[in-house]
Design a protein that fits this description.
Blueprint: E1 9-14, H1 34-46, E2 51-54, E3 62-63, E4 66-67, H2 78-86, E5 93-99, H3 105-119, E6 123-128, H4 133-136, H5 147-166, E7 173-176, E8 180-183, E9 190-194, E10 199-203, E11 215-218, H6 223-232, E12 235-238, H7 243-254, E13 268-273, E14 275-277, H8 281-295, H9 298-309, E15 335-336, H10 340-343, H11 347-361, H12 365-372, E16 378-380, H13 382-394, E17 400-403, H14 413-425, H15 438-442, E18 451-452, E19 458-459
Parallel strand pairs: 1-2, 1-17, 2-5, 5-6, 6-11, 11-12, 12-13, 13-17, 14-16
Antiparallel strand pairs: 3-4, 3-15, 7-8, 9-10, 18-19
Helix pairs in contact: 2-3, 3-5, 5-6, 9-12, 13-14
Length: 461
């Protein structure tokens, strides 16, 4: 008997502060105006995607003491955007990245519970931590936490938020569709939490959300991040683009689940994925080369090299050879607020490797940055991309993909029109939504063991 086909989960990432969007392209639109978000969300919902995802940066990046203006910079508040999108979509999940280092459980739980009510059960929370004092300067508490404390705070933050969501239980309220929600138990919403990071007690004033709790996403790739995902997350973002790496990552994370009493299907693996489509595979490959050169200008290439060298390299020609001087070690003084800085843990070894590769291939600085940077995950005709995506999922290298188009907001349109119908024909992507909530889309159980009716109100299972 043949193994049943796994469904390909699809989501759409509206890029925020980033270096993947070709914002200089004539087809690119605003990252601030609401119509850009609305167009993007409507396209995703038309293609029956699971959810839309917003990342978030809490401080503008700096380079050489000035705002780094070669990327898209800044975006409106996540909750404000998602609440507005709830009004112009019906089924699409709404996922927001909210930091656990500088926020407080009560306010975040209240915002997500409200969003879940407003959307009829479509909210999700990407729980992240913050790693640097630079970002912390925007907050009263300031500073930053060592990695092990960041994750212990995140774990307690999430467990505390769950206590708040759970403080309203089904046997404590009467949900009346016409008249609203009435208390049956005066203790509904009461909570007391005492722990290492939080010591709070009071009354949570938002009734139980339609999903019980928002769907929980996690994005860390460290040992602590993988363990956190295995214990508490419903889905984890992956950065692995190859089939072999994806299978290894999936196997590693899912082997941790039994320790927490969980099954493999209770945690979805969703890598970010870029794509370039063409009428033929060769046309798509040529377009992909053009996109990469648009994404990596000469100035961008020099700045990227400075992430490793920790020096001002503005005097170097991006179309010339790599510097023959070594990186400066110690505290990074050129780039601030850039995750890439942490990626290069041994700058001397990275510089040596890059020089060797550039010499062997005749690459300039710009060529090297293009060749070693993020590449498009899927390049080809719509048929090639649909087939390759399905192969990844059936091979357990992923459960689906979070698509990051290089043009905003219209870059998702071609995928929705040309690739999604092929996935539907192959029987691996829905043609209609089967339920109203994001948990329905992702195949996740309700925390109460209850289903959610079409009105968004809980009913007995």
């Amino acid at each position: 008997m043949s193994k049943p086909l796994k469904q390909v989960h699809l989501a759409a990432h509206f890029p925020g502060v980033n270096n993947t969007t070709v914002w200089s392209d004539p087809e690119a639109g605003s990252h601030i105006e609401f119509e850009s978000f609305a167009h993007f969300a409507r396209t995703a919902e038309r293609a029956k995607f699971d959810f839309l995802f917003l990342a978030e940066g809490l401080r503008l990046r700096e380079h050489g003491g000035a705002i780094y203006d070669l990327d898209v910079v800044g975006r409106p508040d996540t909750f404000t955007v998602l609440a507005a999108l709830a009004a112009v979509t019906d089924r699409l999940g709404l996922t927001g990245t909210i930091n656990s280092t500088f926020n407080e459980p009560y306010e975040v739980a209240r915002q997500f519970a409200s969003l879940d009510h407003l959307s009829g059960g479509r909210s999700a929370w990407n729980v992240v931590t913050s790693w640097d004092a630079f970002t912390g300067e925007n907050f009263r508490r300031g500073g930053f936490l060592p990695q092990e404390e960041r994750y212990s705070r995140a774990e307690e933050f999430l467990s505390t938020a769950n206590e708040l969501f759970d403080s309203w239980r089904g046997d404590e309220i009467v949900a009346d569709q016409a008249a609203g929600v009435f208390l049956r138990d005066a203790k509904a919403g009461s909570f007391v939490h005492t722990g290492q990071h939080f010591d709070i007690h009071g009354q949570f004033n938002v009734p139980r959300p339609p999903q019980g709790r928002p769907v929980i996403f996690q994005a860390g790739d460290s040992e602590e991040g993988r363990e956190f995902a295995a214990s508490d997350a419903d889905a984890i973002f992956s950065r692995y683009a190859s089939l072999e790496e994806g299978r290894a990552f999936t196997a590693d994370v899912k082997r941790r689940l039994p320790k927490y009493g969980r099954e493999p299907g209770e945690l979805l693996i969703l890598p970010a994925a870029t794509f370039v489509l063409g009428d033929t595979d060769e046309e798509a490959r040529e377009l992909a080369r053009e996109v990469r050169r648009q994404q990596v200008s000469g100035a961008t290439a020099i700045r990227h090299l400075e992430f490793v060298w920790n020096r001002d390299l503005s005097a170097y020609d991006p179309d010339g050879p790599l510097p023959d001087i070594d990186p400066l070690l110690g505290e990074h003084r050129v780039a601030r607020g850039r995750a890439q800085v942490r990626m290069y843990r041994d700058p001397l070894a990275t510089a040596r490797e890059w020089r060797e590769r550039a010499a062997a291939n005749g690459w300039s600085i710009r060529d090297l940055v293009i060749e070693t940077g993020n590449r498009q995950s899927f390049v080809g005709s719509p048929a090639t991309v649909a087939r390759t995506m399905e192969e990844f999922v059936q091979a357990d290298a992923a459960d689906g993909f979070i698509l990051v188009p290089h043009i905003t907001p219209g870059g998702l349109d071609a995928f929705a029109d040309k690739v999604v119908p092929l996935l539907q024909e192959r029987g691996v992507h829905r043609t209609e939504y089967e339920g109203p909530t994001l948990r329905d889309h992702l195949g996740l159980a309700h925390p109460d063991g209850a289903r959610v009716g079409g009105t968004g109100r809980r009913t007995a299972s």
